[in-house]
Specification:
43% helix; 13 helices; TIM Barrel; single chain; 10 strands; alpha/beta; eight-stranded parallel barrel; two-stranded antiparallel ribbon
Length: 323
């Protein structure tokens, strides 16, 4: 096992984290485009990146491809920004083996989802996460997404896991603000909102940040929202979130990441290419996304003081992806 470059410290898992899409070109991963995308998000002030999450179509990538994606993002991040590696699947020991494979890389930790499809008991969930944690000394971010896995990680189970400091945070994507509030109030974990439409309410209720797919589009505004709420500028934050919400809703109106890739393609950041069974969005959704994007791009840019130089660099945009 390796010691983490970013030590186990729950406050390090705060802020706006982006689960990266995986760009494709003619069926292959477009690593240069992925690196440009990651660099742009870092320049806009995001607090962390996630590789091989659901948004990254990780289940459609083989092990070698996952390793290549991770290496490319780490090369780009160059310790400017922490990176989590997504670990999923229903086979506990296979997941632990993947952790061991990646553990020599300069990771901030792992985002580990509940096992999908098999719907284990709460005791089974507990043991699943413990076995994976035993495979590494790095921080673990729990990921609760019952709409995808078929099982809810209950508060009592999270509380038991939280007794082990290695479990530093939870991405909560169960669609329940009440469940988020219980996690904030009754566990020591950093609660990262995984439902973008609930982001404003979650942060106002004491949430510690988000792992937000929607933050690919105008990431600077998500960082601004986080900063405004931390500064208790709630009226400004509410107004800003009203600008973000139409795009957020559209990005999840069809299965993620199809709408997101459509928007990023409109911005010239990648080709609109997915791997089956994911398919591109329909024409009606595409038209709505284009209109929402036009409005969102009118919102003034935000540059945190610590990121002003990178923000100036970001304005020198890369050339658009050619179809």
């Amino acid at each position: 096992m390796s010691n983490s470059l970013f030590p186990v410290h729950r406050t390090a898992l705060h802020g706006i984290w982006v689960p990266l899409v995986t760009p494709f070109r003619d069926g292959e991963i477009d690593l240069p485009r992925l690196q440009i995308l990651a660099d742009g998000l870092i320049a806009q002030g995001v607090h962390g990146l996630v590789v091989c999450g659901t948004t990254g179509e990780a289940s459609q990538l083989d092990s070698d491809e996952q390793g290549a994606v991770l290496a490319a993002v780490l090369e780009t991040a160059r310790q400017r920004c922490p990176v989590l590696m997504g670990i999923g699947g229903s086979d506990t020991y296979a997941a632990a083996a993947r952790v061991m494979r990646f553990d020599d890389m300069e990771l901030a930790g792992y985002l580990v989802s509940a096992p999908s499809y098999v719907r284990p008991s709460q005791d089974g969930l507990l043991r699943h996460f413990e076995v994976i944690a035993d495979a590494t000394s790095r921080p673990i971010v729990l990921y609760n997404v019952p709409a995808r896995t078929g099982v809810n990680l209950e508060l009592a189970t999270v509380q038991r896991l939280a007794q082990r400091p290695q479990f530093g945070a939870i991405k909560e994507a169960g669609g329940s603000l009440a469940q988020m509030t219980d996690l904030i109030q009754q566990t020591p974990l950093a609660m990262l909102c995984g439902d973008d439409a609930l982001l404003f309410a979650a942060l106002c209720g004491g949430g510690h940040g988000a792992i937000s797919a929607a933050a690919h589009v105008r990431a600077d505004l998500y960082v601004q929202l986080y900063d405004l709420i931390r500064a208790q500028c709630l009226d400004q934050a509410r107004q800003l979130f009203q600008h973000l919400l139409p795009m957020i809703r559209l990005l999840f109106s069809e299965p993620n990441p199809a709408p997101l890739k459509a928007v990023l393609a409109m911005r010239g950041q990648l080709r609109e290419e997915l791997r089956l069974p994911m398919a591109p969005v329909g024409a009606a959704c595409r038209a709505k996304l284009a209109a929402a994007l036009e409005q969102l791009m009118l919102v003034p840019a935000y540059a945190p003081a610590s990121r002003q130089a990178p923000q100036r660099q970001l304005q020198q945009a890369p050339t658009a992806v050619q179809s």
